[in-house]
Design a protein that fits this description.
The protein is mainly α and 135 residues long. The protein folds into two domains: 62 residues, no CATH class; 72 residues, no CATH class. The chain is 79% helix and 0% strand. It contains seven helices and no strands. Helix 1 packs across helix 3, helix 2 crosses helix 3 and helix 5 crosses helix 7. It is rod-shaped and about 85 Å long. It binds zinc ion. Zinc ion binds next to helix 7.
Length: 135
C-alpha cells in the first residue's frame, strides 16, 4: 500500500500539504485500490466510526509537547520518535507544532546570539583590563 491510513485520513481532512494533496488526487485517477480505500475510510466516518489517529488529530493528543519538540530540534530523540514528529509536522502539517518549532528555533538562535554577545563583552572587558595594566 502506497499511503498509510493516517495519511489518507489527513487527506480526507484536507490536512496534508498542497503538494501531497495533489499527489494523492492524481494517484486516485489511476489507482482503483486507493479509491476503494478512501471510500472505506469515508464510509466508516459516515457511520460515526473514527480511527484512533483521527481522534488524536482532532483533539491534538498526537501533538508532542514542547519538551519533546525541543529534543527533536536538538536531534536527541530516538529515530522512531523523531520520524513521528517529522510526519506530524511535515505530512499531517500540524500548524500548532510548526508554530511551536519556529518559536523554539528563534529562541535557540537568540540564546546563541546572547551567549556570543556575553563572550564578546567579556573579551572586550578583559582586553581593556590587559590594556590598562600595560599603561
Ligand atoms: Zn501538533
Amino acid at each position: 500500500m502506497k499511503y498509510t491510513q493516517a495519511e489518507l485520513e489527513a487527506f480526507l481532512d484536507e490536512a496534508l500539504s498542497p503538494s501531497e494533496m495533489s499527489e494523492i488526487e492524481a494517484e486516485l485517477r489511476s489507482d482503483q485500490e486507493l479509491g476503494i480505500q478512501l471510500r472505506a475510510i469515508h464510509g466508516r466516518r459516515d457511520a460515526g466510526v473514527h480511527s484512533l489517529g483521527e481522534i488524536w488529530r482532532r483533539h491534538r493528543v498526537s501533538c508532542p509537547n514542547r519538551e519533546q519538540l525541543g529534543s527533536f530540534l536538538l536531534g536527541v530523540l530516538e529515530d522512531d520518535h523523531a520520524d513521528y514528529i517529522r510526519f506530524h509536522v511535515d505530512v499531517v502539517g500540524c500548524r500548532l507544532c510548526s508554530a511551536n518549532i519556529a518559536d523554539m528555533e528563534l529562541r535557540q538562535k537568540e540564546a546563541a546570539e546572547s551567549a556570543q554577545t556575553r563572550r564578546t563583552k567579556y573579551f572586550q572587558s578583559s582586553a581593556g583590563y590587559v590594556r590598562k595594566s600595560l599603561d
